[in-house]
Amino acid sequence: MTKKLLTSVERDFFLDKFDNFLFDCDGVLWDGSDLIPGVDKAMEELRKRGKRIFFVTNNSTKSRAAFLGKFKGFGIQASLEEIFSSAFATAAYLKHVVNFPADKKVYIVGMAGIREELQAQGIRTCGADEDNHAEFKGKIDHDPEVGAVVIGLDTAVNYVKYAKAFTYLRNNPDCHFILTNGDTTYPTDGSILPGAGSIASPIIKALKRDPDVVLGKPAQNMLQTIFAEYHLDPKRTCMIGDRLDTDIEFGVKGGIETLCVLTGVTSEVEVLSSSSEVRPDYYMDSFAGFAPQ
Questions:
Q1: Is 24 within any annotated ligand binding site?
Q2: What does the pLDDT read at residue 222?
Q3: Of 39, 159, 206, 286, whose CB count within 10 A is highest?
Q4: What is the second-level CATH architecture of the domain 87-214?
Q5: Is 26 annotated in some ligand binding site?
Q6: Could you list the active site residues?
Q7: C-alpha to C-alpha distance for 228 and 224, rounded to whole angstroms
Q8: Which pLDDT score, from 0 to 100, does residue 10 have?
Q9: Which residue positions in the chain have pLDDT lower than 70?
Q10: Which one is the CATH code of 3-58+217-290: 2.40.30.170, 2.60.40.1080, 3.30.2350.10, 3.40.50.1000?
Q11: In a 10 Å sphere around its CB, with 0-12 CB exposed, 13-18 middle and 19+ buried, how is residue 207 labelled?
């Protein structure tokens, strides 16, 4: 049964129950360019209590280094080793699972975060911001060096990017089709906008082909990496997020308890709905409720 954390006693009991907390970022810690009020104080409280904290985000627009700068700007303590993003997961997948060949490159429909994480792994890239202002001139040139197409959130997506992605996936033998995450929407600056899953939909429909792999939550690769690297006890670990179909499902699939906050895309009605396929163990209005009163 899903329980709402209402009182300080309930919140203290919750914090004492867990040693490790996995956080989504957008809609939990911040809303676009704005910190959710009080969250910085709540995070300080967890650090004071000696909790281990990890940030697990489907946002592929920034590299881990860029996220670190955002945390610093908001006054939230974080280290590079604590940040796991879908862009980082994509780079690790291509490097260590696919063993992506050095004579191939990746075409990106996405933003700087994907490019920077791939290049950090020594993987050659093309597309992304290079094609932000490209004009379609009637055809797409063949490029046999493209061995994978990665699609993530792209706020500058255009026809040329779609045409290139389609052409490479259709014409290049064994070209990998990777989606950083399947989020259809994401919260930002008080509204909800189309996400990476929506950006990928035209290519999926045109090719009549699903991605070979969808990384990011609720896929378990990031959770398995965190557990293996840091030897966490699942029974003492909690996932905190704002989406039922990614964050909460990520925790449920991983066998850990979950907390849904209502500062992002999910409403209280959705949390409590009997028709919801995934329901959290706990929920609250905002994670800022853990800030000292």
A1: yes
A2: 87
A3: 39
A4: 3-Layer(aba) Sandwich (3.40)
A5: yes
A6: 24, 26
A7: 6
A8: 97
A9: none
A10: 3.40.50.1000
A11: middle
